[in-house]
C-alpha cells in the first residue's frame, strides 16, 4: 500500500486549502482513511477520519471548519479546510486502515503553513 498526499502549501489566516490523498496497492481492502497532523515535538494527532461506510469523526478543534470526504472507489480521501488559523500549521499525514490486517498505512505528509 502506498499513499500520496497533495494540496498543502502556504495560506493566509482565514483562507482555505484542500488536501488530497490517493492510495495504491491493496486499495480494495481499505476500511477507513483519515488525516492526522503533527508539529515538531508533539505527537501526531487525529484531524478527521472517514470509514468507507461514510461515518466520520473530527477533532473538536476543527469541527465546522474542516470537511473530510472519500471517493466512491474508497481509495482517495480529501480534507477541505476553511477558516484556517496559524495554529493549524503542521505536517498533515494521510492514512488508510485495513481492519483485517489491524494496521494503518501512512503517506509521507504535506506541509500546511498558515500565516497571520
**Rg (C-alpha, Å):** 13 Å
Low-confidence stretches: none
The ordered H/E elements are: EEEEEEEEEEE
Structural class: mainly beta
Distance between the termini: 37 Å
Mean pLDDT: 96
Q: Helix tally?
A: 0
- What percent of residues adopt helix (DSSP H or I)? under 10%
- β-strand number: 11
Approximate strand percentage: over 45%
Q: What is the 3D form?
A: globular
Biggest sheet overview:
7 strands, mixed
Q: What's the arrangement of secondary structure elements?
A:
Blueprint: E1 2-6, E2 9-12, E3 17-24, E4 32-38, E5 45-51, E6 56-58, E7 66-70, E8 76-81, E9 90-98, E10 103-106, E11 110-115
Parallel strand pairs: 2-11
Antiparallel strand pairs: 1-3, 3-8, 4-5, 4-9, 5-6, 7-8, 9-10, 9-11
Description:
The protein has 116 residues and is mainly beta. The protein is built from no helices and 11 strands. Strands 2, 4, 5, 6, 9, 10 and 11 form a 7-stranded mixed sheet that branches. β4 (32-38) and β5 (45-51) form a beta hairpin.
Relevant terms:
116 residues, mainly beta, seven-stranded mixed sheet, four-stranded antiparallel sheet, 11 strands, globular
Please summarize what this structure is:
The protein is mainly β and 116 residues long.
